[in-house]
């Protein structure tokens, strides 16, 4: 066979042969490099994901050195100052929570990702709660809890310079955006709906299933199933009296283009319940997660709306 081919080739066959081999090797090296670049890109992201934290050495003040977006002009969270907002009649932005908010999920799962607690849920027949905002549908993704060292410094957003014990951030993504919050943020398909919990002396019974599960979530990367309950018990449904603005992820890579809706009317949590969140262990040194909230960022030239 080879002989037959050779017979068709001119005299400098072997040179030609080596040239083909060389091109082949170059091509392999080139594509290999391209793939490994892609992997490094992913790995880089993933490593940074694990690499950031809330300590002095890897905390919010350091993020801008590793993530360009963190130095942007449309960052979250912000201090929502009532006297600086544009008040708009709520009819001008339709906000509709779907009926799945009232339905019991099939399963609910809480996860300690080493930095905060994330709550996941699954409904029957692949149904998911959704929010329709001005005819755009956003599907429920997950819920993150943010807290701080004391009951007065947990929330990321502030309302008129007040911080609350805990901020609960519910992530919604446009249907076509998969189920990755970073990807959704990159595609500008992410809607975050935030609720505050103000510390009191009385337990909030709706939070109890989550607070109970925290005992099993002490160690980083542990998860616990939660007895399912309708989401609206945790995330009350509303269509007016809320802030709305354009911001970013509040954690690296701090991607901008995230729509934020912040419900300023705080829900209640007891100090006892709030303290259980601070007992969780995480971070790269396996210490207590005493804070996982980013300080407020400059509002800059952004317009903050209040839908009345
Ligand atoms: C949103 O929820 C409504 C009501 O449950 C449902 O009819 C609709 O199909 C959902 N939309 C999407 C895009 O999932
Ligand atoms: C983890 O511990 C090491 C050694 O004590 C320290 O140098 C490092 O800064 C700590 N990292 C964080 C994020 O606190
Ligand atoms: C309205 C719409 O596009 N719904 C789709 C959302 O995504 C799920 C899963 O990918 C599809 O099954 C729905 O048809």
Structural description of this entry:
This protein has 308 residues and is α+β, with helices and mostly antiparallel strands. The chain has one domain: Roll (Carbonic Anhydrase II). Helices cover 23% and strands 30% of the residues. The chain is built from six helices and 16 strands. The strands form three sheets. Strands 2, 3, 4, 5, 6, 7, 9, 10, 11, 12, 13 and 16 form a twelve-stranded mixed β-sheet that branches. The longest helix is centred in the first third of the chain and has 39 residues, at 13-51. One 2-acetamido-2-deoxy-beta-D-glucopyranose (NAG) binds next to loops.
Write down the overall geometry.
globular
Supply the number of structural domains: 1
- Sequence stretches where pLDDT stays below 50 over 5 or more residues: 28-49
How much of the sequence lies in strands comes to 25-35%
CATH-level-2 architecture: Roll
Overall residue-averaged pLDDT value: 87
What is the CATH domain class?
A: Alpha Beta
Tally of DSSP helical segments: 6
Rg, alpha carbons: 25 Å
The beta-strand count equals 16
Q: How much helix is in the residues?
A: 10-25%
GO cellular component, one term: cytoplasm
Domain Alpha-carbonic anhydrase: 50-308
Pfam families: Carb_anhydrase (PF00194)
Organism: Ceutorhynchus assimilis (cabbage seed weevil)
Features:
carbonate dehydratase activity, alpha+beta, binds 2-acetamido-2-deoxy-beta-D-glucopyranose, 308 residues, Carbonic Anhydrase II, two-stranded parallel ribbon, twelve-stranded mixed beta sheet, zinc ion binding, Alpha-carbonic anhydrase domain-containing protein, globular, transmembrane, CA_dom
